[in-house]
Amino acid sequence: MKKIVLFAVALFIGLSACNSSAPKKEALSNPSLQSEAQQPGPVLKRVSLEVFQEKLASATEAQVLDVRTPRECADGMIENAQNINFYDDDFSAQVEALDKNKPVFLYCKKGGRSSQALKVLEGLGFQEAYELEGGYSAWKAK
Prior knowledge:
With 142 residues, the chain is an alpha/beta fold. It has 2 domains: 37 residues; 99 residues, Oxidized Rhodanese, domain 1. It has 7 helices and 5 strands. Strands 1-5-4-2-3 form a 5-stranded parallel beta sheet. α1 packs across α2. The chain is globular, with a radius of gyration of 22 Å.
């Protein structure tokens, strides 16, 4: 019985290894599959302050989005940011007016609302968005 179990495990591992390498070999020999594999998909993610600053500095057409309330924005904003209050009834409609093909850099006070806003952007088909981990509090503390 022990030999049968060992054989089954070895067979499973062997078959798994064969299946995982087959597409790679096929992609290397088929140029049409190579281009599909290399095409980037949407990039929507939460990033550290350092990565946020780096990406923002290197972006040529950045859209900076502050999703805090106007009262919170009175404490200060990231340069060139536009305020669209996450709590507004028409938040999605306001965000949809942004260019979906240009990178969006979004933040709130600490990261709660901006993570929800990132999901809204994803649902609307935005291609590139970076949410600031720690929000404006992290930016201000730098």
